[in-house]
Design goal:
Blueprint: E1 5-10, H1 13-24, E2 28-33, E3 38-40, E4 45-47, H2 50-57, E5 62-63, H3 71-79, E6 84-88, H4 95-98, E7 105-109, H5 121-127, E8 132-139, E9 149-156, H6 163-186, H7 219-227, E10 235-241, E11 244-250, E12 253-257, E13 267-269, E14 274-278, E15 281-285, E16 287-290, E17 296-297, H8 298-303, E18 312-313
Parallel strand pairs: 1-2, 1-6, 2-5, 6-7
Antiparallel strand pairs: 3-4, 7-8, 8-9, 10-11, 10-18, 11-16, 12-15, 13-14, 14-15, 16-17
Helix pairs in contact: 1-2, 1-6
Length: 314
């Protein structure tokens, strides 16, 4: 059994894997801090975060503050008497929170800091065509993802990798890195590296308009854009067919580099395949989701859906 008393803060599935690993390694989790429940779906039923569901199932103490600076929350946090706090995919913390434990607060971030500071590092690494990324642990300070680095692990990105696949790879390597970091802290053997103030690449939050495909971009950039958003939140385009416009999400795609005379954005289709004309080639669409329908492979969609000769993307 470990003597450290730890508070864990996180919200999505990525954080659940790290919390599960901490429990597996027999670390003492005295509290879990996660996002408040939010109404979702047509019935506006309250939806619990992935971390809350896991923590509740494992009988852990859960706090869901709406205001991280409130006196009540700070008192609840102090009452837990944690030695250390671990943050994975949570909100920016006020100094009164991250500076509370005697051993400090460290964060796991899914990039090789200082590059890709921000909310969506895994997405942007693929969108930008990177061939390497990784995970970093660092002690929190008063800015976003700028604290002193403790450890880093590098991970290769293959040319056809989607953000979903890379997310899971980094989730597992991140779990290992958190345990390595904890062992250094327990042994009082931590050495840190101060980050440079500025980074050349950022990972700002993904918005709906960020996901829209620019068909006038290069074939490589379009391909990277789509796989960097597959499966979530998904790249999309306006789809014009038979005079009607709808939203089309694209998932699995393949590049076809070839000279052609088609207008950019033109859709070419037969009964089983569908591709879009781009600069210096086509983008073959292997799986997609038409507005109002489920995600499916292209052949299944075309089995009961007619693509007109004048159809195009915009």
């Amino acid at each position: 059994m470990k003597d450290l008393k730890i508070i864990f803060m996180g919200t999505p599935d990525f954080a659940v894997a790290i919390l599960a690993r901490l429990l597996k390694e027999k670390y003492t989790i005295v509290g879990v801090i996660t996002a408040p429940d939010k109404p979702a779906g047509r019935g506006r039923k309250l939806n619990e975060s992935a971390v809350k569901k896991f923590a509740t199932k494992n009988n852990l103490t859960v706090l869901q503050p709406t205001n991280l600076k409130s006196t009540l929350f700070l008192e609840e946090l102090k009452y837990l008497q944690a030695d250390l706090q671990i943050i994975v995919a949570f909100r920016m913390l006020p100094e009164a929170v991250w500076n509370m434990p005697i051993l400090g607060t460290f964060n796991l971030h899914a990039s090789l800091l200082p590059q890709y500071r921000g909310a969506a590092p895994i997405n942007w690494a693929i969108i930008n065509g990177e061939t390497k990324t990784g995970v970093s642990t660092f002690f929190l300070d008063d800015k976003i993802d700028t604290g002193a680095i403790i450890l880093q692990t590098e991970t290769d990105i293959t040319s056809d990798e989607t953000v979903g696949v890379l997310h899971d790879k980094l989730m597992h390597s991140g779990s290992d890195l958190v345990i390595e970091t904890l062992k250094l802290i327990e042994a009082d053997n931590v050495t840190t590296t101060i980050q440079p103030e500025k980074a050349t690449k950022s990972a700002y939050k993904i918005h709906t308009e960020t996901c829209k495909i620019n068909w006038n971009d290069s074939l490589d950039n379009i391909y990277n854009h789509i796989r960097g958003l597959n499966p979530y939140p998904a790249a999309w385009t306006n789809f014009i067919n038979n005079g009607k416009e709808s939203k089309l999400k694209l998932f699995d795609v393949k590049k076809e580099i070839i000279d052609h005379s088609h207008e950019i954005g033109k859709i070419i289709s037969d009964k089983k395949t569908l591709k879009v004309a781009t600069k210096k080639g086509y983008l073959n669409i292997l799986s997609l989701q038409l507005s109002g329908k489920k995600r499916m492979d292209t052949a299944s969609l075309l089995n009961g859906f007619s693509i007109k000769p004048d159809s195009k993307t915009d």
